[in-house]
Amino acid sequence: PILQSLMECGDVTVQHVIAKGQNCDEQLEACIFEGQRHFTVVFRGTTEQQTKLGKKSAKCGFLPLDSEHENAQIFATFKEEYTKIEAECFTLLDALTEENPFCDIVFTGHSFGAALATIAAFKYSNARPMVRVSCLTLASPKVGSVAFRHAVNSQPNLKVMRLEYGQDGKCQAPAHVGVHVGHTLVLHGSIGSNSVKTSCPIVAYKFDTPKHKKFKTNYPDLRSYVHALEEVQRLRLTWARDFVGASGKGVVVNNEKRLVV
After folding, report:
1. Which of 15, 54, 125, 145 would staple 32 via disulfide (CB 3.0–4.6 Å)?
2. Structure confidence at residue 215 as a pLDDT band (50, 70, 90)
């Protein structure tokens, strides 16, 4: 499904496709694409996992990420699926980075695929400290425990940015359990629906997540995310330049600028 969708958009350079499952709806996928100075790995769960994310993840409980990070726990549902493709994916990436040593690695995915991408990004960056790794996800659920969050956020060669569109309910799942990792970018919910220009169309949170109000929750699909991003470009909306709470002049005493840390 990943490759088919992207091929419809235009020419893409595909390096490898990893698929586990009998047919398109039941396949767990990871596709590796070549960019100018990076390789992008796109993850996708089965159709059911992508569309019915939530309660099942929480019911399965936590499991240690691996023997090296026993305190950093992730939801068992994500770990079970992720382990099916890690070895093959990492072997292919190692071969590509060996041939192209100055290329970065970018992991991405939507919904259930975003959770898999987050796990892969941390494990690959932790095992290959000389490789610069980014994780850019859409509608990512909460992946693991507070200890997992600390491990991800303190990994020096890893940058994690999560994109949320409005009050996406998938980003709040599983409810009351787990925490998010990395930074958060939030697209205003009106973008893509009525194309109204807002004063703050994109808001950025540094190592934090916005406080959602339950009655405003919605469930936009991947096409809605893509359409909203296209509208940002079409309307030339201003992208976030500062994290929430980080803008301003800081503390000024006797014409001397000071930063509070």
Report:
1. 15
2. very low
Is residue 210 within 8 A of residue 184, CB to CB? The reply is yes
Residue 54 pLDDT class (50, 70, 90 cuts):
low
Number of Cβ within 10 Å of residue 97's Cβ equals 18
Identify the sign of the CA torsion 111, 116, 121, 123.
Answer: positive
Q: Is 63 helix (H, G, I), strand (E, B) or coil?
A: strand
Average the pLDDT over 42-50 and give the result: 91
Q: At what angle do helices 86-99 and 112-127 cross, to 10 degrees?
A: 50
Which positions ≥6 away from 202 have C-beta within 8 Å?
Answer: 185, 186, 187, 188, 232, 237, 238, 239, 240
Phi, psi for residue 86 in degrees, rounded to 5: -60, -55
The Cα 39–Cα 33 span in angstroms is 6
The verdict on pTM exceeding 0.85 is yes
Alpha helices in the chain (DSSP H): 2-9, 47-51, 55-59, 76-82, 86-99, 112-127, 146-153, 222-234
